[in-house]
Fold each of these.
Amino acid sequence: MSVPPAPILYESHCHTPLCKHAVGEPEEYCEHALRRGLRGIIFTCHAPLPNGWSPDVRMSDAEWDTYVAMVYRARDAYAGRLDVRLGLESDFVPGVEPWLEKLHRRAPLHHVLGSVHYQIGFYRQLYFKGDVFAYQKHYYDHLALSAETGLFDTLAHPDLIKNESPIDWHFPRIRPYIEKALDRIAATGVAMELNTSGLLKSLPEMNPGPLQLRLMCERGIPVVLGADAHRPDRVGDQYPAALKLLLEAGYQEVNVFLDRRRHAIPIAQALASLSS
């Protein structure tokens, strides 16, 4: 009788109710990670920001200790069964660097995602002037800037802007700007995410889509897999499809960050490890 492969993959992007738009306790997310055949889960809830920015979609600064305690509670409850780690998803906007530098030192983090959330009110007020194409270009410039800060391990859902107005998303038109951004990102060594939650958005494909994924592979940019789970049953969602998409784009490895260090996993081994 053959022995099933040992779990090897992690959920590297998931949330808690503290962000005010996710449901379920960390322990519920952990249960689904076990069902998916994952080795571990890294909670990366939305970080607090200064200036009262977008308080309705993130934990407040006063809730930081609660967040850490929630994750550690799950870590202790699942010790020996599932590797539970503390991470963070931090918004990038130029000028926020000093705040994030201090925030990221508050607790030992294992994976820090950098996000440019074009749809959030304060960001739109600063950068959207009514021209969708200009907004797309701005997004990719900020994505590259976020990598160049050195604050982040991985750039989350790195073509999210295509959902601003799918009818205005023309890849050949934006491609030169994507390529310039990817050249800058590749020079930093920062990883980029393949986020399966894109299948649920207004332009239903993973973030990034196959065309950008190939450009990333050509530049040797490492990829981390995440479902961006805001409810427990989305932990590890569509991982087999995502891994196959990576293979089609030319990748042979997928990555996970632990102790903020990147660990490469052969995709063939990752696929074999997943529960059916």
Note: The chain has one domain: 10-273.
Amino acid sequence: MYAGRLNLRTLIVGEDAGGLIATTTLVENYPGFVSIPGGKLAERLLEHAAHYGVELVEERVEDIKRGCNGFEVLTRSDRYEAKSIILATGTVHRKLPAKNAERFEGRGVYYCALCDAPLFRGRRVAVVGGGDGAAKEALLLAEYAERVFILCRDESLHAEPPNLKKVEENPKIEVVNHTNVVEILGDEVVTGVVMQRRGREERLEVEGVFVAIGGIPRSELARKLGVEVNERGEIVTDKQARTSLPGVFAAGDVTAGGFRQAIISVAEGVTAAYSAYRYLTSEYVETRRCDGEP
């Protein structure tokens, strides 16, 4: 949206319009919206960008190469030329490192409650994770399931206070602390999990396992392009969203940062767009607060 307002000819290319926020049930910490479905928020952001002439191509980017006049963005069916690139590739769900977890994906092991919670109406399910994402998944699942277990490795659940309170007050949800899931049980579908808890091995009968253990940065394109990443695979940027490669900027969860929030990613996107504008035009746009101070 900011790139469009700055009259840059802008193209968004990606296979998942909206990213992981679009799979979030409710967003309740984005300024201006007390509560809004993640998919609706992503939709409004895209509509706002389109208002300024920004185009969207929903296709996976296979590669980005440096060319004579800038960069070439390659998809399976097309090629696009650009003078500057903003990488906002986000993260993918971290897979559960337990025996049989991959085998049962789609047959009891899932990574999106918004997508698959209705399949477990009246059933027992587990959420593996210890953060705010796990709390949100459990709260949505509790609208369908008979019983929801949050299997947390730490001593307590580390969720935002409002979500933690909702979990504690929901009679359908039980938090099981000091728990590490080591195996998924089942034949054709999931029937339970094996977990290590306080030095002992225990079994829990559930029909579904939802994994919420964080994300892995989607920085493959950045690495192939020669952009610097840290030991966690996150793109290294400065305060102007510049990467180690001139003309390439980055924003959002794919970058190195501690606090993963939609509003922070949006702010970084604004910075990246403005830095790209400065890179392409060498011009400065003066901005002032309403009180007249710069």
Note: The first helix runs from residue 2 to 5.
